[in-house]
Please model this.
Amino acid sequence: MRPSYRVAIVGATGLVGKEMRTILEERGFPVSELRLLASERSKGEVQSFRDEAHVVSTLVEESFEGIDFALFSAGEEVSREFAPLAVKAGAIVIDNSAAWRMDSEVPLVVPEVNDGALTKHKGIIANPNCSTIQLVVALAPLHDECILERVVVATYQSVSGMGSAALDELLAQSIQLANFRPVTQKVFRQQMAFNLVPHCGSMQSDGWTSEETKLVHETRKILGEPELQIAATAVRVPVFIGHGEAVFVELEHPISVQEARDLWAEADGIEVRDDLEAGTYPMPVDAAGQDAVYVGRIRIDESVQHGLSFFVAADNLRKGAATNAVQIAEELAKRRESGH
Amino acid sequence: MRPSYRVAIVGATGLVGKEMRTILEERGFPVSELRLLASERSKGEVQSFRDEAHVVSTLVEESFEGIDFALFSAGEEVSREFAPLAVKAGAIVIDNSAAWRMDSEVPLVVPEVNDGALTKHKGIIANPNCSTIQLVVALAPLHDECILERVVVATYQSVSGMGSAALDELLAQSIQLANFRPVTQKVFRQQMAFNLVPHCGSMQSDGWTSEETKLVHETRKILGEPELQIAATAVRVPVFIGHGEAVFVELEHPISVQEARDLWAEADGIEVRDDLEAGTYPMPVDAAGQDAVYVGRIRIDESVQHGLSFFVAADNLRKGAATNAVQIAEELAKRRESGH
Model:
């Protein structure tokens, strides 16, 4: 009989936390006990898992007794404080925050790309940022085949990356504007409905945003290429779920459009959507609710030697967060079961 | 006394045609007669210009008798057929369609950048594509100072570039989705509300779209650099008015962020919006209704030698179309008055 695991979700009432619960169920992860944890104010909330009611309890120091896998998605501060406590209690933490991603002793893993990094860890595995995950899933097969020299990426990021209140506010603002009323703003610093905001995350010292530097540093770490040249501009767009990315790469070795298409078609976790004539290309509305990273608009970029340009879309809550975390748990369980 | 001119607007009932009328009035262009022309089905529509009612008449071969300047914005076919007739009747045509832009005998002009190109023409001046205009206004001062080697641009284009029916359909789809009803599609091939569509314009042979190749060829022509390396991805976003562009340039000579900011602050037609901490950056919601090209998010791009990255936003109907056309007319009038 296959073993089963006691799993905790920290941040169980957030958008990603809820998605983690859904995906554990969808993928049939062998859960013997599910412990839903959140802050004091969500205590007592009832969620369903495999048709059974589960009550959310308050995250405390003792929350992790007996837990095998703790999936964290409650922000950096919570992860910094509670991940070590979970490890101490014997759990393996899979952390969706930025708290541990750049720690040299913490593997930063996208299973399709670098599951080998899971062999050595101190109890914490970091889940990359949403925009990084969909980028590296698309880049990895290309890097294996042609070697990346430089990556330029412009993102089109949906508001769900900012949590469930952002979904509500985009909807509210859209309705307000449709009725010629002024917009209300609580979550967004700027009007988000029918607008573009070239500011995702916090400001860094040199004018870059945290979302942009994450794309650079996390991609380098996952691909194991600390010198890879990457430039990024991250823009929030009035979309509920699903991030888009316009990507321009410079390769050491040339590749044709058909070769790239074939490469991606065979790669794990990718669906090619590349037929402009048929109106087939990656779009958030198709990617939302799916686990694949959609790749399309594949073109030779003649403005540089061995240039290739393409567009990527994926569900930022699923593959960009919850699905990737559960895939890491699956991989760790597999390794444990086979004795690695 | 300053001379005044008889002006025709072809496509007077379209979004850009209406904006041309507004801008002629706003800028006090010396109009002695305004002739509003459109297709048969708009005949009899009444528009106001300087508080006087003007009746739209049907565009016919004889529409241009006595006209000095004919501003065209009625699509390529109309321009191909009627621009030569207008020239024959003695008018100078300023054409907003793609029909004549790449004709070697037709100047393609953004007055802030290459008004010198107006000295020689055969009666037709082409107005560039909306996404090209805002790009070259930002690129030109940088090119003058540091010489562009390569430009990578990802666009975020509003739906108004597709005409007034597109505005209605984005609003309708947004309301439908807010009410959990299926979306209706007539103008858009894809759901546009709360989605991203990486497909602007028609398909070209090599997988690029017409909007992307226009960015390449028109930018080269306006800057007078037929070999300039440019890569572009054009994406339609659920915004009513105002295009955004994430731009990454490689320069022959280095420039600091402050030097670039100063350069743009002094340049004609540009407003610098570059203070991330204050939440100040180019956004469609601010650019809409304005004539300036907004430039911000200015950063050194260390992924390449002498790299600079920035974000641009402008009103695609005004500076991206109507304002630029009226500026060309002003420039031509000035030259005529000074005997050039």
User: Anything to note?
Assistant: Chain B has a mean pLDDT of 97. The domain at 132-315 of chain B is CATH 3.30.360.10 (Dihydrodipicolinate Reductase; domain 2).
